[in-house]
Amino acid sequence: MQTFVFPTRIEMARAAAARAAGLINTAIAEQGHAAFVAATGASQFDFLDALVSNHDVDWARTTMFHLDEYVGLPETHPASFRRYLKERLIDHVHPGEVYLIQGDVPDPHAECQRLNRLIADHQVVVAFVGIGENGHLAFNDPPADFEVEDPYIVVELNEACRRQQLGEGWFPSLDEVPRRAISMSIKQIQKSQSIVCTVPDRRKSQAVYDCFTGDVTPLHPASVLRQHDHAYVFLDADAASLLNRQE
Q1: Residue 143 — φ and ψ, nearest 5°?
Q2: How far is it, in rounded angstroms, from Cα 80 to Cα 13?
Q3: Strand, helix or coil at 68?
Q4: Beta strands 194-199 and 124-129: pairing type?
């Protein structure tokens, strides 16, 4: 894992997007195609804005997989991650293939099986991720399952995670935040050839400290990125503010 700290979130986002575009372009040049995983949430706003502004990527030669989605939430809901990705990424760059998580299907476990079959045919070149205020990676809340082999799983969202979604303005009340989600598993994320992790804001500073110092542990799920040789973590100064503190 390599960590990069930038004075502002905009500089951070531009650097992360440049790295992501470079990884995709290299794969297309070498293999003719690139599969990638797209994340959502407030941490990805500036990153995706910078990425879609890069006109050097031949997006028609890419396949996009979706990192996570709420169970039971229709695409029309303002907090739907399918809606988010269409508005902020897909409708701008038009990837050649897009596989979205249908979180409102009657059987979310069957949806996981569908996605697992699809992703089995692809080597993911790069996964775009963030980390949560509770240290989660995708929707793998602590204590995360580091051992499950299935690429997509149904997970329970803990209260800290749900309160983050409320605090970011996605839902009007905590009761309306779903309690379950379909998430890419930790092992599947780690199978990506590269990972670009973008983490802005002071509210993430404790999670950054917990995950990137001390032990690699399911109690701090994003700490597992430290075991990936090609994970690139991009922080703004606020998110990194606790890393140099003295105990």
Answers
A1: -80, 120
A2: 23
A3: strand
A4: parallel
Task: Go through 36-72 and write b for each residue having 16 or more CB atoms within 10 A of its CB, e for each that does not.
Answer: bbbbbbbbbbbbbbbbbebeebebebbbbbbbbbbbe
pLDDT value, residue 246: 44
Q: What is the mean pLDDT of residues 100-123?
A: 97
Q: Is the peptide bond before 143 cis (omega within 30 degrees of 0)?
A: yes
* pTM given for the model: 0.95
Count of CB atoms within 10 A of residue 153's CB? Answer: 23
Q: Which residue has the tokens 């701090």?
A: 220
∠125-30-114 over CA atoms, to 5°?
35
Query: What is the chain's mean pLDDT, rounded?
Result: 96
Whether the CB-CB separation of 225 and 231 falls below 8 Å is answered with: yes
Assigned CATH topology for domain 2-236:
Rossmann fold (3.40.50)
Long-range Cβ contacts of 79-86 (<8 Å, 24+ apart): 79/165, 79/170, 79/171, 81/40, 84/40, 85/38, 85/40
Q: How far apart are CA 70 and CA 89, in angstroms?
A: 19
Beta bridge partners of 63: 35, 97
Report pLDDT digits (tens) over 67-108: 999 999 999 999 999 999 999 999 999 999 999 999 999 999
Evaluate if residue 118 carries a pLDDT over 70.
Answer: yes
Residues 6+ apart with CB under 8 A from 73: 79, 80, 103, 104, 178
Whose tokens are 């790069």? That residue is 126
